[in-house]
Write a structure and sequence with these properties.
alpha+beta, four-stranded mixed beta sheet, 4 helices
Chain lengths: 164, 164
C-alpha cells in the first residue's frame, strides 16, 4: 500500500487569528451562510454554499448558493428577480460559517413566500414546552405574490420551499 | 413484521403559513441558530441546537446549544460568564433554522477568542478567487483574555474552538 502525503491540519491559531481564508465545508461540502440586510440589519435567511457558489459569489459580488433540495447551484433571484448584491462577506472564528450583508434587488423580498425576511414568525419564550407552542406572525406583509412569480401550480403544490 | 403508523407529512402551507411550531432538525438532530445582538443587530455567532437545547432555551429564556465537538449540551457562558438572555426567537419559512436576538451578560463577548462577535474577519469581494484571498480584520478588540478565562493550557493548545 502506498502512503500518500496529506497536508498537515492547520493550527487552530492560524485558522482563528490568521488572514488566510480557509473555509471549512461540512461533510456534504456545504457552508451555512447567514444573510442580513445591509440597510436594516435584519436577518433575511439562512442558506448554504458549496465551493463553487462561494467562488462565484466572491468573483461576481452577487450571492449564489447551493440548493439542497434541488441539488444545484442557485443564483438568488434567478426566478423572482430578488437578487442580492454582497456589500460585505465575513467568516467566523473557525471558518465554518459565513455572514453576508446584502442589498436586495427586485421587490426586496428575500423569502419565497413573498415576505422580506424568511424569519417572519416568533417563538414565544418562557411560555411552555417547545412542542405545542404557537408561533406569532411578526411580519405579514407580502411584497410580491408567489403565485404570480413562480406560477400557480407550484405555489399551490407547495414546491416553492424547494427553492431553499 | 409489524407496521407502525407514521404521522403524515405536514403540508408545506401549514409549515410556512401556520402557527404550529414544528422545528425540522437535520439528520444529526440539529438546527442551525443565528444569534444576533439585540442591542446592535450584529451577528454574533452561528451555533446549533438539538431538541433538548431548544426546549431548555424556550423554557428558561437563557440560550443553550449543542456542542458538536464536545457532543454535549452547552449553556452559553457556563465557563466564560458570557451568557445570553433571549429577547426574541424566530423560526424561518420551512422551520429548519432559528434566529435569536440576545442580550449578553458578562464581558458581552460572544466569541471564545475574546471578541464580541465570532465574525471578526471580512472576505474581500471581487478581488480574486476564493482560494488565496486574504482576510481583513474588522474587529480586533478583545473584551476578555481567553487564557485567563479558559486557562493557559487549553488556550495554547487551541482546544477552545471545541466550545463551538
Amino acid at each position: 500500500m502506498t502512503k500518500t502525503k496529506t497536508p498537515p491540519p492547520r493550527a487552530a491559531a492560524d485558522i482563528e487569528e490568521g488572514t488566510a481564508f480557509a473555509p471549512k465545508f461540512d461533510a456534504s461540502g456545504l457552508l451555512p451562510v447567514v444573510v442580513t440586510s445591509a440597510a436594516t440589519g435584519e436577518v433575511l435567511m439562512l442558506a448554504y454554499m458549496n465551493d463553487e457558489a462561494l467562488a462565484r459569489t466572491i468573483e461576481t459580488g452577487e450571492a449564489q448558493f447551493w440548493s439542497r433540495s434541488r441539488q444545484r447551484l442557485w443564483r438568488k433571484g434567478e426566478e423572482s428577480g430578488n437578487t442580492m448584491r454582497v456589500v460585505e462577506m465575513r467568516t467566523d472564528c473557525d471558518q465554518d460559517a459565513l455572514w453576508l450583508k446584502v442589498e436586495m434587488g427586485g421587490a426586496e423580498a428575500c423569502c419565497h413566500t413573498g415576505r422580506k425576511s424568511c424569519f417572519y414568525r416568533a417563538v414565544p419564550i418562557g411560555k411552555g414546552a417547545a412542542a405545542g407552542v404557537a408561533l406569532t406572525f411578526v411580519e405579514t406583509e407580502k411584497l410580491f405574490d408567489p403565485k404570480q412569480v413562480y406560477g400557480h401550480a407550484r405555489a399551490a403544490k407547495g414546491t416553492l420551499k424547494t427553492l431553499k
